[in-house]
Amino acid sequence: xxxxxxxxxxxxxxxxxxxxxxxxxxxxxxxxxxxxxxxxxxxxxxxxxxxxxxxxxxxxxxxxxxxxxxxxxxxxxxxxxxxxxxxxxxxxxxxxxxxxxxxxxxxxxxxxxxxxxxxxxxxxxxxxxxxxxxxxxxxxxxxxxxxx
Length: 148
Hints:
There is one protein chain. By secondary structure, this protein is α+β, with helices and mostly antiparallel strands. 30% of the residues lie in helices and 43% in strands. The chain is built from 4 helices and 7 strands, in the order βααβββαβαββ. A 7-stranded mixed sheet has the order 1-2-3-4-5-7-6, sandwiched between helices.
């Protein structure tokens, strides 16, 4: 059973290790620290027993929520954990009375795009040159999920 709890500063070494394993251009520790300090962010970690295997960062305000980061430990990917985390994030956005949940995803990230589309997200736009990439920049697709 995947349990969620608030991310603590003490979790950051593990979160950073996962972030650096999972992404070629990871968030910095400072970004996570800033998100933990600001009350408009919901930073959660997900544990399977004593194994911190995933985390998410969502912001909310003005009736909208924005999933900023959802990451599963690479060796635990493909086991349904991403879907379980996403379902919990969607419910949290509903609990915050958001009317829509937005996110950006790399154009090249087919697995994540499939996950989001299968959960009911729709592509609503594109942000050109949004993400750093190995050879310059990469576009992001903007997805939205109506929650009402």
